[in-house]
Design goal:
This protein is about 80% helix and about 5% strand. By secondary structure, it is mainly α.
């Protein structure tokens, strides 16, 4: 209490109590530090163990891949070695030895000699057969007849082909002539119709001029002179224009080019008839 004198035991006990609290707190802090350190150690240890396991797995995979790569390299090296050895053996077999060259040349010389002898014997046989055929009159006559028959057959075939060709060309020319004649008649009809229309217009204009002249003649002497002139023009136009219904002959249009290899000749009726050109025969 304030103002009261404290005993010495109280202060000692209070100081002892404070020291006990301090020691308790120190033990608690130390125990907490130890627990945290243990927990951190355990956590780090687990992480280290997992990292070590991962590293060991990675190292094992790398060693397996390296072993597989080395095995593939070894197999490829073995394959290339076998191929190189096979190529070397093939090149060695391609190189002929002197004995092989000599044997090959002897074989070829014998083969050429046998071939030349066979050709010579065949020539001699053909010569003897030809001599026998020339000496045998009936056989020579039969051969001549066979050759003549074959020649006549070939000539007849060629003549037939030529006749077919001429007939086809003549048919084409007839079709062409008929088309050309129809075209010419169409053009003449059109020209006649145009000429008739022109003549009709001329007559109409003449009638109009005549009416104008008659009207002008009733007006006086000056008009009469003009009418005389107009009448002169009308009479001149009527003299120059052909009579109504008259047929005007116009020159026929130029005929297009005819096919090559044909010629033309005129008939009594005036139309053109094609005939084969003698040059193509």
């Amino acid at each position: 209490m304030p103002g009261q004198h404290l005993s010495a035991d109280y202060l000692i006990l209070k100081r002892r109590q404070q020291e006990e609290h301090k020691m308790f707190y120190e033990r608690v802090a130390k125990s907490n530090f130890l627990a945290g350190a243990n927990a951190e150690w355990e956590i780090k240890t687990a992480g280290n163990i997992a990292a070590m396991k991962t590293q060991k797995r990675f190292d094992a995979i790398r060693r397996a891949d390296s072993a597989a790569l080395n095995a593939r390299r070894q197999r490829l090296a073995d394959m290339l070695g076998r191929e190189q050895q096979a190529q070397e053996q093939g090149l060695a077999l391609m190189e002929e030895s002197p004995e092989q060259t000599k044997l090959r040349m002897e074989t070829r010389a014998k083969m050429l000699g046998a071939k030349r002898e066979a050709e010579r014997q065949e020539f001699v046989r053909a010569a003897y057969e030809r001599q026998w055929r020339l000496a045998c009159d009936p056989l020579r006559e039969k051969e001549s007849q066979a050759i003549l028959k074959a020649t006549n057959a070939a000539r007849a075939y060629q003549i037939g082909e030529k006749m077919q060709q001429y007939e086809s060309e003549e048919q084409e020319n007839r079709v062409f002539d008929s088309m050309w004649e129809q075209n010419r008649l169409d053009k003449l009809g059109r020209e006649e119709r145009e000429e008739g229309a022109r003549l009709m217009m001329d007559h109409e204009q003449k009638a109009v001029l005549d009416r104008q002249v008659r009207r002008g003649g009733a007006g006086g002497q000056g008009s009469g002179g003009n009418g005389g002139r107009h009448g002169g023009r009308g009479s001149e136009r009527s003299r120059l224009s052909p009579p109504s219904g008259a047929r005007v002959e116009l020159p026929s249009p130029p005929r297009p080019d005819r096919p090559s290899g044909t010629a033309t000749r005129a008939t009594a009726r005036g139309r053109l008839v094609t005939c084969p050109s003698p040059l193509r025969r």
